[in-house]
Amino acid sequence: MKLRVVPALVCVGLGAHTASAGGLFLPGSGATSTARAGAAVASADDGEALSVNPAGLAKTTGWTLTVSASLVRYYMEFKRDGTYDDVAAVDVQGYEGQAYGTVVNRPKPPLGLGSFQPLPVIAVVSDLGGRVKGLRVAAGLYAPQGYPFRDMTQGYKFNTDTGAPPPTRYDVMKAESALLFPSLAVAYRVMPELDVGVRLSAGTANAKQQVAVWGTTGNVEESVRNDTLFEADVKDGFVPTFGAGVTWRPTRNLEFGAVYNSSADLRLKGTGLSTKGPSVDMAKVVGPIGDNPVTDRLRCAAEGDFELGGKVPACITLQLPQTATVAARYKFLDDKGELRGDVELDVGWENWGKQCKFDSAAGILADKDCASPGQLLVNLDAGLYVNGTFTEPLQVNAVNLGLQDVFTFRLGGSYNIPAGKNRITLRGGVGYDTRAAREGWLRASFDGAARVTTTVGAAYRAPKWELNIGGGAVLEGTNTNPGAGPGGALCNPTRNDPSGCVGDGSSHPPADRQGPDPTNPLFAPEVQFENPFNQGTIKSNYVLFMLGYTRFF
To answer: Which pLDDT tens digit goes with each residue over 7-18?
Structure first.
């Protein structure tokens, strides 16, 4: 029976958070709203309203088909401060003492166009032939506006190459994931000035991850021979969520909107496969717990198959945050009362800072089924064996992402130019998102930087159809995680001095640490080694292209 070392298993959770769209949500959803930098909660009036604000569906007439998408590319590079540590003689590879190199994200999304990933919105809206006055129904799907793809390997192959491994390996090696939300929505015009709408969604999610963890308990010198590489493949076929919105027009020129989107719990299940480094202790392995008196600990599967390539049943819990946005729109009307242009301001909140309660006395989360955007819960149907003897079941492991709530500001608008019976619409917008990562918690696997968005777009509207195009950039600049030691000095434990970052030979409590540490599940979180791997500089930006088509029947 092929069994693998325990530290490799828990790292499945470290990579899986990219299923939450790779970090913070980008502005908009589809070509029209994205061309306005996301300022569309009050103005959405076609199929894109399914994901932007379902109340906007009430503005449609007859049948409306919208097929729209943003194409997103994320550029990111990370330069870690410091040098590769000296290691024991048996583990020397030859690059010890060299400065860490710059690692660049070079993903190849499986359904992408080069490094660009399409994020679709597809919706059909109907007024049901006017059978119920003011009622609209819609069906479709959308994808959260984010970029969950990473390849930080620089071509490095674990247990094959003898050159320097990427300094991001404890954060992410490779990651790709997909999250789609098939949805139904209903909107109703309560009165000429007031629309309300509700969206119900049942999403599907899958994620494939590759990441390194410590294969030994105190690998503070970060010897790659004492690492374990873990590859995970997890899925969730049912991710329920909902949204509710309203639009109100107190005057001909003014329109207000508001939308709330619930959180979405992702409870992914699947398998993981680990590969030990040459110096990892072979006496410590994991195995099934079904034959031991702890069957109540089974969480992911009725039983595990540990013989087919060493795969281990794994389940991971994470959450997309709840969000809320309010909007104010001013409409410029011509002499006939037709819309000439508009300006809209949206202000939003994203609850990334929600955390599960931690039982410090027991060293575990108080609720093993809790879900939050700022923590990953990793459950494994396995136990630790030492020299073939079962010792204990693996506990629920929590990975802290160091996040805080985000506030968003979007200002966008449009201007219509008559062209006979048709019209040309010019759009544009700017936006600003506050930082999601707390001080010291920026990382390669999760985009937590503050950002400025600029977008432009145009549309050609005929009586029965409309074509939308656009482009933009999300600028994040250069951001630095300071050293986690006293006064911003680097914290770099070594074999000869494995102490933490406080400066007196001790480590900060986990809640007070300034940055993530390599996953090391042989220890409870309160005695985890403090060894931040993300001290350094991150440069990042997004490039956006938008294309959409709407048909009116």
So the answer is: 333 333 433 333
